[in-house]
Write a structure and sequence with these properties.
The chain is an alpha+beta fold. The protein is built from two helices and three strands, in the order αβββα.
Length: 94
């Protein structure tokens, strides 16, 4: 739902469908209930928690020094590199 790492252009789409976008640090506070800051929100049917993600760079000696690309660099690149190695590329499990 982003373009150029900015999702502001999608807020109108959400509004048109009656979807409330709440930004902030939140926590589930009960069934169909979320607290964000000092506000409490209750949903009629469901709550969607979109927490985002961060890439995990494996602890391989020298890898961090090589400035590896994560999904952020891949999706914002303006040029194709002359060489590329894909390490992983799947969903991690813990």
């Amino acid at each position: 739902m982003i373009h150029g790492l900015d999702d502001a252009s999608k807020v109108g789409w959400l509004d048109e469908r009656g979807i409330t976008l709440i930004r902030g640090h939140g926590r589930l506070a009960g069934e169909r209930c979320v607290s964000v800051g000092d506000q409490r929100y209750e949903a009629r049917s469901a709550v969607v928690v979109a927490v985002g993600s961060a890439a995990a760079v494996p602890p391989i000696q020298g890898l961090a020094d090589a400035r590896p690309w994560t999904s952020h660099e891949v999706t914002t690149a303006r040029e194709i590199p002359t060489g590329l190695i894909v390490l992983g590329g799947g969903v991690g499990r813990r």
